[in-house]
């Protein structure tokens, strides 16, 4: 009896200290964090776990997201795996997906969360991801192969000189089984209509199933406007059926609000343009006229697309509803042979992953055109004595005054970039990574 009273006393004291933290987490609507927090403090059969609903019978899948296999940091091993025959089951299914959207719509963020591992660079600036590497998701008998399809931005003179190449670019969409269209609903001019190049891809390939994904809904203050946004971008039709019809007054009011606030968005983008937060000197993108990017004389601007098969609303940066989207994509897979071995998660080489991650950090911390003009040179890439990956890279810059800018006071900035990039690389390769960066002036 004495032992029982002591156990009850311990549980009561522990609950008194734990309860405030649980209340805070409940207010933030984060039940999974409550379970994890409780599981860290108490063994599997404790009373406190039962009170919080974390019983020993609860499957691991309920609280954990399945992790993708690690990428080998050995290029030869990665190349051998890519050449390896797929280890597909008897009734294998496959789906090839193109992820398209305006710059900064969240294509890389969504790709990373679908994969369950960060393998693609993410930043707030345009042209962070410049390759069309594939991400591979393999579960049970189904394999999803996704590709970020970057919009083709060109001037009118380029249009006339390279019209055959441009037509071939859009015809390549036929290689995919489905198209995910990402729209950033946090920016008014982006949610008011589909990007011209997105509409062009869809209209030239109407036979391919397309899915609308409204991203960054966490940044949208008025969640009720999601219905109006959906109606605009789908022309009120989803999967061939009338999806939604809002009142004329509310629809008119939203249009007026969008029109007045678009001026604020453009003014903000002009400020960002002057500060260098979204500008790539190698790009034709104009921050002052975002809706006119990629316009051609042959294609007038369209607003929506009436042939979307489904609509999803999510926040890719937090992973909300991404799992639901993945489950839906799994259902679209058709019987067919896998394209890759089940251990393959990306077609990128280890060096490409490293370069992209470092480039992401440079874009985030350096202003204006500076990060776009940096050339990375690999001096050392080898396995250390304890099995860790040792990387030494030199960052070559075209201007001498950029050297001090990148290094920072007392070397703080370059050390921070190396530390953050190293952590991301550890997540990709699942091993310890020692990354050293040096900066040199390229004469």
From TrEMBL:
Keywords, alphabetical: GTP-binding, Membrane, Mitochondrion, Mitochondrion inner membrane, Nucleotide-binding, Ribosome biogenesis, RNA-binding, rRNA-binding, Transit peptide, Transmembrane, Transmembrane helix
Domain G: residue ranges: 96-216
Domain of life of the source: Eukaryota
Localization annotation: Mitochondrion inner membrane; Mitochondrion matrix
Protein name (Swiss-Prot/TrEMBL): GTPase Era, mitochondrial
PANTHER family per UniProt: GTPASE ERA (PTHR42698), GTPASE ERA, MITOCHONDRIAL (PTHR42698:SF1)
UniProt feature, compositional bias: Basic and acidic residues: 255-275
BP-aspect Gene Ontology terms: ribosomal small subunit assembly
GO cellular component, one term: mitochondrial matrix
Domain KH type-2 per the UniProt entry, residue ranges: 369-443
TM region positions: 6-26
Species name: Pyxicephalus adspersus
Membrane topology classification: Peripheral membrane protein
GO molecular function: GTP binding; ribosomal small subunit binding; rRNA binding
């Amino acid at each position: 009896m004495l032992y029982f009273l002591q156990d009850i006393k311990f549980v009561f004291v522990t609950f008194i200290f734990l309860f405030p933290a649980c209340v805070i987490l409940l207010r933030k609507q984060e039940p999974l964090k409550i379970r994890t927090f409780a599981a860290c403090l108490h063994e599997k059969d404790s009373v406190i776990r039962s009170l919080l609903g974390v019983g020993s019978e609860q499957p691991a899948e309920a609280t954990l997201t399945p992790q993708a296999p690690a990428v080998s940091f050995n290029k030869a091993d990665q190349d051998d795996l890519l050449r390896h025959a797929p280890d597909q089951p008897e009734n294998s299914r496959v789906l090839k997906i193109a992820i398209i959207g305006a710059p900064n719509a969240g294509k890389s963020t969504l790709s990373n969360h679908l994969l369950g591992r960060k393998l693609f660079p993410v930043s707030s600036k345009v042209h962070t991801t410049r390759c069309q590497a594939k991400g591979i998701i393999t579960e049970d008998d189904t394999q999803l192969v996704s590709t970020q399809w970057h919009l083709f931005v060109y001037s009118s003179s380029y249009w006339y000189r390279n019209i055959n190449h441009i037509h071939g670019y859009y015809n390549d969409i036929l290689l995919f089984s489905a198209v995910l269209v990402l729209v950033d609903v946090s920016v008014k001019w982006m949610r008011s209509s589909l990007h011209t190049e997105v509409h062009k891809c869809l209209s030239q390939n109407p036979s391919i199933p397309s899915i609308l994904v409204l991203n960054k809904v966490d940044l949208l203050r008025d969640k009720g406007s999601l219905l109006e946004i959906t109606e605009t971008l789908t022309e009120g039709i989803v999967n061939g059926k009338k999806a939604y019809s809002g009142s004329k007054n509310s629809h008119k009011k939203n249009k007026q609000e969008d029109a007045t606030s678009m001026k604020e968005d453009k003014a903000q983008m002009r400020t960002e343009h002057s500060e260098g937060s979204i500008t790539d000197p190698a790009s034709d993108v104009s921050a002052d006229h975002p809706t006119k990017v990629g316009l051609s004389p042959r294609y007038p601007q369209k607003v929506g697309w009436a042939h979307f098969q489904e609509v999803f609303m999510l926040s890719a940066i937090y992973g909300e509803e991404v799992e639901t989207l993945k489950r839906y994509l799994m259902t679209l897979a058709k019987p067919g042979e896998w394209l890759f071995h089940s251990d393959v998660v990306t077609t990128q080489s280890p060096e490409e992953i490293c370069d992209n991650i470092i480039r992401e950090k440079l874009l985030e911390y350096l202003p204006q055109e500076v990060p776009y003009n940096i050339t990375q040179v690999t001096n050392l890439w080898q396995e250390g004595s304890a099995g860790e990956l040792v990387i030494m890279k030199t960052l070559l810059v075209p201007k001498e005054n950029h050297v001090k800018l990148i290094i920072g006071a007392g070397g703080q900035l370059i050390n921070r970039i190396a530390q953050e990039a190293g952590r991301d690389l550890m997540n990709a390769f699942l091993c310890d990574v020692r990354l050293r960066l040096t900066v040199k002036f390229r004469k």
